[in-house]
């Protein structure tokens, strides 16, 4: 495996299988009374979160701690990061602290790649701008494989604001890599025109797509986008693309409803839909810790002597 | 498989049967005894021992499998992170006598890791160690309670145990060192 | 300076005289001398070198006044000289803006004091570059300005551009240069809008943002009969429109930068901020159209758009970094490497695009050739085969070069400014 995980393109299909299999073992660790193994004892993992995200940060923090690593949290409020210290200076400080791995979430696309220029440890992208969120995609693949038994040939629709979604990009790339069929659904203003070059289909009619799905993956749609006039109103968006009770009825038996969170209940997904048994949104959270443990283990468990340098 | 075969199927069977008797003798029966095999191959042997014990005593002890990868002392030293296998210990080990089962006892580091792992699962009354082959060259103060066969070897030789479930046959082979990088699972 | 220098055995490429042949050139008292007075002159062996009129850059940013941390007139002129330029036109987007004679005089004086090349400051079209009211063009013309530009942005309203183009007709040889970009289409954009911007998660600037304003400006040029110059063209559509406008007889000229000739949007996959420029590096088909446009004369000149930026500003996250690359020191080499060496344009055309044509557009009579007795000795001698790796530090104060780490073919050896060797053996002499 590569030294860093910045994008789904950094892992091969074989790597993905290895990651998912390794996560299986780490899920078992989560069922023990003592949910801890000494695998990364003495290593230092830094959470560098420029965007506040309690959910993902806690997931990474738990993952690192269950591997017995030491965890340092740098978040935007109340630290020099907020006072305008440059990314480079923060990186050099972390480097001086001997960080073995840095998990970074940042509002600027490409920031994790830039970070690799200044640090010797492994860099894990926890979400950069509108570019990628590879760990989310991997945990979603894990959930799909676990519930449906396979990835190849799965029919998955990703519905919503694809244009601004790093989750949509990583997940599309990952699913295509594993042989699934992906359809992006949303208003034309929110789907990149060049998306078919990613190996996916595009549709503007959610009703036409739903009956032929194994997984319906809903993206968060920010109200901000209506202000920017990507669609005329939230009401119309919900009416044309929202996952309502009626639309859920169009899904085939046994299909999954997924959402990366946090949800905008009433916009892209109705409240009572999110709580249905087909919805595996809760599982996605549990599996997140196992996947992140697997990634930290695989990235830091080797000396990296033969692995190619990413930067 | 290349190399000299030191134990054939019959000898492996006899050794397994003898170990099962010794476990029962030492623990005065199967009451409170659980078997935990160390992945991989240790757990196939553990299951064999369990059925032997069942045949002799009439009761089958619980069998679990333990992957000790996360407890190894050499994580971060090889190029890639070591491969992980399944762990399943579905029963409570508190107050039990755990018999750890492994195929080959070599440096003792695997067993050291297994002890650390077990301790995270609970507090057994006692931990005993059963191995099919003891090939010497200990690097830690670890010894086996039940040994199928003592096999003196050179440090650089490879000892390979084959089990029907994974390799299609039951046998023990010794192989000459092959090139510089010894990959194998010898520990 | 009463220096006599004989440049011996050079391949003299002089488009203004239609000349491409091996020969000697004598320089004395700042001018080209007659060949028979060579005795006693210092001989510079130019065997294997090309001798051309000094290069002229119509579009450069010297940052002074206002951002002397990034570049000064002096360091910028030194960079120019190292790159073989003997004249530069610094843009008006300084602080304060060059929208009045006082700033123009200051910049010109700084250039004279540096004594490395001629500085022909560009004046702003509108006051403060705000795009609303015309600046005092006449006063600036009296101060020597021949090019007006609000470069950095387009003139927002056609009416204002129309007035400026019409008003400028009163002044002989004056042109209005436009940076063509529709602000509403490029809001938040970081790179060319296309497959790569969607994959990299960076907001894009579509080529239509440039083409819309090019179309508008050409229409205004037609309406006014004024002289329009289009800065740093980047898209195939723009080139085609200029081709048709010229065929129609409109008085329009156009430029392209060395980096747009050398790179495409695919180069941004590394998120390297030195590739973040405005207008953005576009797709391969755009780059090819720029090559073809330069070859057939649709694009008249190569101009660097040399844009120095402070190191810490360029080392920031991609979307925070300011756009721009320096280019004075690599311009000639980039054109030789990516156009002349692969046979896309001839050497004479390259020299014309870098020297003769910009000198003519600028009205800088002392530059661009022909290389004949009595004319000022503004010359550059370069080795067209020498390979070198572009690395910091540069003569420029800044180091944000898109060419960093690349190997280029073609290196300036001597630059003579009014007869003085300001660059000798590749090194600045002052």
Descriptors:
heterotrimer, B: 187 residues, alpha/beta, five-stranded parallel β-sheet, 4 helices, 27% helix, 25% strand, disordered C terminus, C: 430 residues, Urease, subunit C, domain 1, TIM Barrel, 2 domains, nine-stranded mixed β-sheet, 19 strands, 29% helix, globular
In short:
The complex is a heterotrimer of chains A (311), B (187) and C (430). Chain A is α/β, with parallel strands linked by helices and 311 residues long.
Secondary-structure blueprint:
The complex is a heterotrimer of chains A (311), B (187) and C (430).
Chain A: H1 13-29, E1 44-49, H2 54-66, E2 70-75, H3 87-96, E3 101-106, H4 111-116, E4 122-128, H5 134-148, E5 155-159, H6 166-177, E6 181-185, E7 201-203, H7 206-209, E8 215-218, H8 224-227, H9 234-241, H10 245-248, E9 256-258, H11 271-274, H12 281-300
Parallel strand pairs in A: 1-2, 1-3, 3-4, 5-6, 5-8, 6-7, 8-9
Helix pairs in contact in A: 1-5, 1-12, 2-12, 5-6, 5-12
Chain B: E1 4-7, H1 9-26, E2 33-38, H2 42-57, E3 63-66, E4 97-105, H3 109-121, E5 126-134, E6 146-150, E7 158-162, H4 164-167, E8 171-175
Parallel strand pairs in B: 2-3, 2-4, 4-5, 5-6
Antiparallel strand pairs in B: 1-8, 7-8
Chain C: E1 4-14, E2 19-28, E3 31-33, E4 42-45, E5 50-53, E6 55-60, H1 73-82, E7 85-90, H2 101-114, E8 118-119, H3 137-142, E9 147-149, H4 158-168, E10 175-178, E11 191-192, H5 195-200, E12 204-205, H6 207-224, E13 228-230, H7 236-248, E14 252-256, H8 258-262, H9 284-295, E15 301-302, H10 311-314, H11 331-340, H12 347-362, E16 379-389, E17 407-417, E18 420-424, E19 427-428
